[in-house]
Structures are given as C-alpha cells and as structure tokens.
Write a structure and sequence with these properties.
This protein is an alpha+beta fold. Helix content is 40%, strand content 14%. It has one domain: Class II aldolase/adducin N-terminal domain (L-fuculose-1-phosphate Aldolase), CATH 3.40.225. Strand 1 and strand 2 (39-43) form a beta hairpin. Helix 2 (75-84) crosses helix 5. It starts with a helix and ends in a 5-residue tail after the last helix. The structure holds manganese (II) ion. The site of manganese (II) ion has 5 residues, from loops.
Amino acid sequence: MTVADQTASLARANRILVTEGVLDAFGHVSVRVTDDPDRFLLARNMAPASVTADDVMEFDLDGRSEDERRPYLERFIHSEIYRARPDVMAVVHSHSPSVIPFGVCDVELRPVFHMAGFLADGVRRFEIRDEVGEGSDLLVRNGALGAALARTLADAPVALMRGHGSVAVAGSLELAVYRAIYTEKNAAIQCQAQAMGTVEYLTVGEGRAAAATNAGQVARAWDLWSRAAAEGP
Ligand code: MN
C-alpha cells in the first residue's frame, strides 16, 4: 500500500471513529508506514471529524516530524508503541466514555459478546502516577511516558489509562478501528449487564475463537462504517 493510500485510509479512519462514538474533539488514530516501519502517519493537531488527507503528517519513532505544523501533544503514545511492538500497524487513542469506568473502578473489562472476543486475554491498566506522581495533567506528553505506557500494554490489544482513556492496537488500521469501536461497545454492554446481575463472560477459548473469526470479517464492517462516515469535509 502506498503512503498516499495509507493517508487516505487514515483520514477515513478518523471520520469513522467520530461517527461511531470513539473520538470526539479529542483522541487520535495513526498508522505505521508499510514501506518504512520506523515512520508513522498521524493527523496534525485538530479535531478528528475534520481530518482530510492534507492534514496528515509523518513522524519518526521519537515523535519528530519535518512537517512544521502543530502536532498532537500525545503523539508519543503512538511512537513508543510502534517502537515496542513490531507487530502493531495502527494505534487508536481515545477517551471513549463507556471505557472510562473500567480505568477507575476495580472491575475488569471482559468480553460479554463475541464481537469483543479479542478482550478475552485481558486488558492492561496504565497508572500515570507510577511515573510522574500525583500532579500531572494525565497526558502522555513525552517519550518516557509513551514508553511506560507501551510497557504496560505489553502484548495486549488494549490498555486502559486511568482517569483518561484507552489505547487499542492491531496489525492493520481496519482491525485497530474495529477494536476501538468494540471496546467501547463491550464496555457499555458490560455496565448494563452488571447492573442486571451476575455476568456470564466469554471464556478465553471462546474469545480467541471469536476473535479469529471476526478478524476475517473486518472488511465488511469497514465498508459499512465508511459509508456512514462518508459525509466528511
Ligand atoms: Mn488523551
């Protein structure tokens, strides 16, 4: 895939994630450059709903760019995860609302339905106080904090960021978008189910099997989400 094609897909991913309720004025999505794995694409500092291909910047794994437009403060989430995880080709960082409770309460986010089977092996929880104490603005605003988040994420698909949001990663842009959307949906459903009674979660075996099946179905979802998000700027 050419950088131009990846740039167009990334602009589309921004609009999809807004339409599906994962991003709002804040949060961001990036993709690793296929032909140059030490570089990644990420929009300039702006609201995701308005991102077009012209707004996309290219960064190295230190979060630096020759492009002089204003970057996102938290670009180090992306750079350090790409450095730590050669298998990761795309990263979504969001503050999607249903996920927030699982970062601040002693309740584990677990798969309640097959669409979120990828959660079956567990998600990680990043505590920024462990790195910078109790007075921070909670933002991952430098490489050291990004590296700490990447260490917490380890080999998981999702990490919760206490009092802030979450990050979802995958081996393709489409799958990272899928995971971000279904992490949000699963969190909302799990909250509802727990209010009703004792919850029967997917087993690890069910989750892994469902995730393997769904990974082959992502194109269908991407097509639908693209249509729903088509009316961009
Ligand atoms: Mn953030």
